[in-house]
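Record type: monomer structure entry
Structure origin: computed from sequence
Chain ID: A
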Amino acid sequence: MKRIEAVRLDCRQVKAADIPALFRKNGVAYHRIDTVDWPSDYPYCPDVKFAIAHKGDCLLLHYKVEEDCVRAVSGADLGPVWEDSCCEFFCCPDTEGGYYNLETNCIGTVLLCNGKGRENRTPASHGTLADIDRWASLGREPFGTRDGRQAWELALAVPVSSFFRHTLKNLSGQTVRANFYKCGDKTRQPHFLSWNPISLPAPDFHCPEFFGEVTFL
């Protein structure tokens, strides 16, 4: 099982657009999402890195992606963002309240739900989603598909209140089980990559038994 530590950055208000520079300034480490769990059916492996940090009451995420084409069709939150070029953070703060799937396509459209399995998941309210600040290097408007080698970045500032079935106040000292993914179900080259390996016969990210660990310092 993979483990990483997420450093605390002593700063006040953080906008998603400022996260890449903030991470560079503070030397925040990047990690790869490069496990091809189903190579016989989905061998394509784009270049994907992520970094994670926090400021106590807010989770900070930055993804860097290079792939052979990008798809951005879903423009409304809670839509099928996994069909687009999409980065995902699944986390389970404890063993009681289920896990969250925070899925974001390359233009910053978000899907956030909670539950104990793939079925019967509870979506976040639109108010909760509105509090998640997003920055996307490709802009925020849908554009369909762009062919050819593409490089893009995505940053999220996620208040702890976004984890709406828990009462998290401060991430410092917390350890959560989590996994990071990159997918694109309806891109030219469908792919399903994970940070922590998944040992299942077919693509399935809703598998907390294969989560790694993130410790918030």
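Annotation 1: The chain has a mean pLDDT of 97.
Annotation 2: Helices lie at 19-26, 126-130.
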